């Protein structure tokens, strides 16, 4: 059954028709959404239904894949574990001088008081020809705890990724979001020891989310900070749950995106610094993607003996959206890998560079595996 899903995706690629394949974290189901025409449909107010693919800058409208056909299939996890790519430092090295210079400029602006934090990213370009579907299969095997996807639209391009971060998950008016910050390499059986810089960075993100949502919700609660493992990386995570006001889901989304975890604080100043200094278009990197307003039918009566009341059912709208981290864009002749990190007053340029090298290995592992 799962091979039929891959075959259908391959046919859509050949016929230049949009689709997305995705597997949610820790699930053994592969989902496919297939659109029957090649038109670009946009999200206006997030009341629409479909698979949404949103850019970093919501000044550009998010793209909506129509759910003309949805296919699900059980998928087996093969449990592949790959080492760090030996050539990873060399593959990154050409970008180092420019990125260090960018970090140094950001630190000066932070010391001048215009910024508390800014997230700076870069793009690594590799001339190579790959099969998106084969690459996606490798991704599924390597990263079972991540949201793994392959997204294609003939008028936009092909993206693939494995992200650990939920932007928001909703069921009716109840929702869950998270703040995720800090990055350390995963060492077997050892939990990370977090620095003051990393702990502060995490708290900044949490505080921002709580503050920006308070006028759009009727309840809000944050969990304790926890260390979570994603692939070969550790992160700090705080889970935030609440109930949004009627009709306010779109406002909640626009308030959450972009968070300080992918942009910085103050938000407007950080966005301006990124636009003026990164010198490339992030496009869908650090945007978000996932199921938007998918319907679930619920029986109101759980007592099976009462068959008369069992006929009454309610439909609940669910959304499950993920931040587009650890991703790459694939063209016919090249691959672009996107990585970044948060810069604060405590940042050391060389250490921040090393963090992006570490993050780039998420995608380099997948590319390296396809050559074996």
TrEMBL record:
Record-given protein name: Isochorismate synthase
Domain Chorismate-utilising enzyme C-terminal, first and last residues per copy: 96-297, 316-359
Gene3D superfamilies found in the cross-reference section: Anthranilate synthase
Species in which this protein is naturally found: Maribacter orientalis
InterPro entries reported in the protein's UniProt record: ADC_synthase (IPR005801), Chorismate_C (IPR015890)
One protein family per Pfam: Chorismate_bind
């Amino acid at each position: 059954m799962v091979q039929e899903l891959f075959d259908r995706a391959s046919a859509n690629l050949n016929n230049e028709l949009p689709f997305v394949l995705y597997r949610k974290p820790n699930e053994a189901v592969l989902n496919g959404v297939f659109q029957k025409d090649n038109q670009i449909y946009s999200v206006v107010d997030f009341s629409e239904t479909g698979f949404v693919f949103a850019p970093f800058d919501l000044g550009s409208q998010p793209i909506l894949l129509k759910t003309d056909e949805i296919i699900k299939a059980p998928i087996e996890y093969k449990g592949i574990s790959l080492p760090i790519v030996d050539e990873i430092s060399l593959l990154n090295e050409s970008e180092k001088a420019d990125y260090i210079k960018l970090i140094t400029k950001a630190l000066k602006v932070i010391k001048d008081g215009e910024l508390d934090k800014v997230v700076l990213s870069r793009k690594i370009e590799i001339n190579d020809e790959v099969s998106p579907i084969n690459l996606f299969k490798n991704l599924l095997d390597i990263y079972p705890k991540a949201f793994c996807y392959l997204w294609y639209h003939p008028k936009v391009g092909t993206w693939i990724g494995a992200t650990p971060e939920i932007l928001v998950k909703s069921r009716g008016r109840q929702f869950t979001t998270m703040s995720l910050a800090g990055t350390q390499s995963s060492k077997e059986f050892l939990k990370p020891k977090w620095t003051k810089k990393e702990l502060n960075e995490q708290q900044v993100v949490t505080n921002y989310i709580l503050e920006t949502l308070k006028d759009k919700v009727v309840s809000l609660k944050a969990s304790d900070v926890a260390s979570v493992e994603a692939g070969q990386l550790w992160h700090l995570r705080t889970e935030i749950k609440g109930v949004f006001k009627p009709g306010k889901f779109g406002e909640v989304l626009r308030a959450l995106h972009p968070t300080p975890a992918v942009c910085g604080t103050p938000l407007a100043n950080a966005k301006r610094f990124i636009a003026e200094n990164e010198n490339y278009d992030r496009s869908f990197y650090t945007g978000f993607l996932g199921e938007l307003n998918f319907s679930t039918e619920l029986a109101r009566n759980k007592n099976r003996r009462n068959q008369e009341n069992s006929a009454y059912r309610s439909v609940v709208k669910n959304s499950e959206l993920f931040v587009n981290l650890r991703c790459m864009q694939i063209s016919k002749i090249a691959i672009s890998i996107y990585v970044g990190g948060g810069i604060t007053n405590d940042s050391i340029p060389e250490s921040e560079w090393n963090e992006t090298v570490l993050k780039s290995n998420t995608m380099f592992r997948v590319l390296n595996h396809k050559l074996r």
